[in-house]
User: Fold this.
Amino acid sequence: MPKSTLITGCTGQDGSFLAELLLLKGYTVYGLVRRLSSPNVTNIEQVRDRIHLLDGDMTDQSSILTAVKESKPDEIYNLAAQSFVATSFRQPVLTADVDGLGVIRLLEAAKELVPDARIYQASTSELFGLVKETPQNEHTPFHPRSPYGVAKLFAFWACANYREAYGMHVSNGILFNHESERRGLEFLTRKVTHGVARIAKGKWDHIELGNMEAKRDWGYAPEYVEAMWRMLQQPKPDDYVIATGESHSVREFVELAFREVGIEDWETYVRTDPKHIRPAEVYTLCGDSSKAKRILGWQAKTKMPQLVKIMVKADLERVGA
Ligand code: NAP
Ligand code: GDD
Assistant:
């Protein structure tokens, strides 16, 4: 009997890579998708006929209960979120509802219907926010800096609480930034590689960015979904930092991306626009994933320079001649 899994957020970057991974491993894959006027299925196009799509929304308890009842999952991966930090400042209530309360809705449904299911919660390095030490590990204190970070903090502790109170197998993956050719266009890395490709092909003459000095620990998304799966194969639930251990500035990322298309005087093509500056910034992130290496046998392979190459190449191909 193949294992059954429910992935929320299966149309997103991570959800699509995870669906592919779990199909390869022989799982029956169910994906929660919200109804939109035009379906957003680009990321799962190649596996759409092999995933069972279930209507639902993290703000709607009844749809979550129905999805859990229909999928009877052995493993649940909760990846659904309003995941863009900048938007969370403009839509804090929605973000809290989806990213915070939505997790309680899912945990309640699981407690009621599949209490033995193993659950993965997409926690984030944004929990560290105004960092208290570098690098950050599972013991580093949290200090979120956005409504997104605050909602994810609530979700993190909700998961820990259901673990302690009801003995449920719930794990938090504290994932640092991870990117890919499937990354949404508003996130820094994809905004840059997409813009660089268009500039290289003569379709745009500049891109507009915000804080060039922020530093992130950027890894490659397909490797990170493997870590999620490994967490749920452990006999005991736990929390894990997943990161490359290297931190680079936005400026370095931009410079490397332009260099990839042979442009050295990149500053000519970049303007700064204060509208991209956040009310409170996370200045620097760098993760220590030695616990994941020790217990899960997981380690990042792709580092930032290689990631830039992968993403620029994909965007050049997309933009075409
Ligand atoms: P993403 O590409 O933005 O995908 C988010 C997914 O959530 C999409 O499938 C989206 O559906 C779905 N969603 C949004 N609101 C929903 C709602 N109300 N009900 C049901 N589904 C909803 O994000 P990602 O980069 O794959 O990240 C996956 C998860 O990991 C997120 O929880 C994110 O916060 C977290 N995370 C990401 C990173 C990172 O660097 N990528 C790092 C740490 C943690 P639509 O397609 O309909 O929009
Ligand atoms: N998006 C964006 N657009 N970011 C910019 C820009 C710009 O024009 N200019 C500078 N930045 C800076 C941001 O201020 C931030 O410091 C950094 O680039 C990265 O921004 P994002 O790519 O939007 O990602 P994020 O780090 O805020 O959040 C992502 O990673 C988190 C994990 O740390 C998201 O995927 C979150 O969902 C995830 O939890």
In short: The first helix runs from residue 13 to 24. The first strand starts at residue 4 and ends at 8. The CA atoms of residues 11 and 40 lie 7 Å apart. The radius of gyration is 19 Å.
